[in-house]
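User: Structure please.
Assistant: Input sequence and predicted structure:
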Amino acid sequence: MNQSLLPRVIGIGVLVFAFIVVSATMTYVVEPGTRGVKVTLGKTTDQFLPEGFGFKAPFITTIVPVNVRQRTQAVRAECFSSDLQQVIVDLRVLYRVPEASVVQIYKQFAGDPFDSLIAPRVQEALKEVTALQTAEQIVKGREEIKQKALAAAKQKIGAMLTVEDIVIRNIDLSHELERAIEAKMVAEQQAAQARFTQIQTQVEAETAIIKARGEAEAIKVRGEALKLNPAYLRLQLVERWNGRSPLVVPADIRNTGALLLPLGPAEKSPAP
């Protein structure tokens, strides 16, 4: 290579490299699910940058990404019930940063605002709710506890951050308290079963009485009907007669007015 061309090639290479560096510092990309905060010489703009590609002043302007996706964080709260029992609640908080709060969150909080804004207020709200319930009520009514704690946390946090939901994963009690609650629940179930058996027995007895009264009334009605219509009884005897005379005949059958069926040829009584 010609020695006179070498400095020129080196200069062109330096210019190309400088152009690439400057071009890289003049552009930015805001990733999906994030918003950009534009900071120029330490001063933050009031409007966030939407996701996408854009240009900025090289070297002096920085684009800081802020995540606006919904996220989940774990919170552990040590609470006390109204009967002074320690209750440890393990929960998950679903939250996100609203677009309108992106710049304000960046200015007021360093890093993720969850630890400094959401977690303490969720714990405080949960402690306030559990303090009004007994340990047994907390275990049985965890959905009610969740809804009240969620409403109180939203009120405390305000509109700066959005708490979407609270999921209670576990409620830990002392072993003695758990056994006491379990024994009480077993006793309540046994009492409920005893009440059900008592009611069932009472219903069966009342049903039997009603059935017996019905049968007695039916017999009474049939008896009165037969008294008023004795010919119907004779007709029933004739229809149900099998062709054989009874072996025992009441002595006063002729005086009762009952129907005396004739004896068949094979059933006549032998001569004395």
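The chain has eight helices and eight strands.
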